[in-house]
Amino acid sequence: MPNIHDVRRVPAFRDTELECNLQLRLNNGNRVWVIGDVHGHLGTLRALVHRLNLDLEDRIIILGDLIDKGPNSSGVVEFVRNNPQIIAIKGNHEEMAVQSLSGTKVELDSTWMAKGGASTWGSYIVAAKGDLHLAKLAFAQDCAWMADLPSHIVLDKWRLVHAGYHPRLDMEKQDEKTLLWIRSAFYKHKEPLDNNRTVLFGHTPTKKFGKPGLLANSSFRIMDGRPSWIGMDSCAFNSVRPCLTAFELSSGDIKWQKTLKSEYWWINTKRRESDIAEHFGLAELRKREKKAIAAKEKARRRLAMAGINSIVNPPVNFRIVKKKLRFVEEKSMSSGIHNSESVINHA
């Protein structure tokens, strides 16, 4: 497989129908929230979406990097794909994953594996309960979806992109690789690249700007006084204030969601991705099996302590004695009805 940095510089892709739909919603007073890099933190993303308290016509845009590093990338993709109110643009981690799909075959890209892809692939194996065929099938379907995501979204007052724009290229002639990978050449440029629109981007954690767990704003402004750019990757796996952040385009409201403690994978480890990467998820499957067995044994002990035997004993042995039955006739003095009662001799 070719290295991701050798991929041909294809033109950046825009979905104009989607852009018109989003702009119409803004014009009608609906809310459009923007969220930075999620990186496989499904529980934290779900908690943030819940806190946004969306109305039916509200929308969420995620600035790429749904996958890699965190504990449940396959779950994040499934959650986003199945939620009609959430829109995603492509990040560099999605692009690396797509390089693993060649026709109908899945050949894991070595560059992607070195940059957090092992945790994503492991999450697909865990979701498939160890069935590699089902894991590859689900991964291939999701890669086809990721390949078709827009490179950026352009609205009347906003540009939404994963990494940024190159200052020496025309804004309408940018290539996809630049929009997914650029860093300092974009945010260190000291003039606005679009005098009418603020650029919202992820990719570069805001701790690089001295704002861990917060949003970062450019020091220079566009014509209406807003920042030239706003950095959105508050980073779900920071050592300081790990969180996901949502920014609402119309009001400028900001919502923070601390990373759930259950997703603190980076504590006491030198790994650059979650433990689900170990043996591509097989170690996680073994761990879950052990937990299930331990939970079952704990439940059995509690039942025993309560005097309830959770094990059903077999019936007591008995044998049938073939013997003539003796009939006893009784006469009811009050009614005069005669009854016959059989007597069975038990062994």
Offer a quick outline of the entry.
The chain has 347 residues and is α/β, with parallel strands linked by helices. Helices cover 31% and strands 15% of the residues.
What share of the residues does DSSP label as strand, in percent?
5-15%
What is the CATH homology-level superfamily?
Metallo-dependent phosphatases
The CATH class designation is: Alpha Beta
Annotation field: number of helices: 9
Strands ordered across the widest β-sheet: 3-2-1-11-12
Mean residue pLDDT: 88
Let me know the largest β-sheet.
5 strands, mixed
**SSE-based structural type:** alpha/beta
Note the run of SSEs as H and E: HEHEHEHEEHHEEHHEEEEEHEE
- The low-confidence runs, each spanning 5 or more residues with pLDDT under 50, are 1-6, 328-347
CATH second-level architecture:
4-Layer Sandwich
Q: Which fold name is given in CATH as the topology?
A: Purple Acid Phosphatase, chain A, domain 2
Span from first to last CA?
Answer: 79 Å
Distinctive features:
347 residues, alpha/beta, Purple Acid Phosphatase, chain A, domain 2, 5-stranded mixed β-sheet, 31% helix, disordered C terminus
Task: Walk me through the structure.
This protein is an alpha/beta fold and 347 residues long. The protein has one domain (4-280): Metallo-dependent phosphatases (Purple Acid Phosphatase, chain A, domain 2, 4-Layer Sandwich). Helix content is 31%, strand content 15%. The chain contains nine helices and 14 strands. It has helices spanning 16-27, 42-52, 73-81, 92-98, 110-127, 132-147, 176-181, 184-187, 282-305; strands at 32-35, 59-62, 86-88, 101-102, 105-106, 152-154, 158-161, 198-201, 216-217, 229-231, 243-248, 254-258, 327-331, 338-342. The strands form four sheets. Strands 3-2-1-11-12 form a five-stranded mixed sheet. Strands 6-7-8-10-9 form a five-stranded mixed sheet. The chain has a two-stranded antiparallel sheet with strand order 4-5. Helix 2 (42-52) links the parallel strand 1 (32-35) and strand 2 (59-62). Helix 5 (110-127) packs across helix 6 (132-147). It is globular, with a radius of gyration of 31 Å. The termini are far apart.
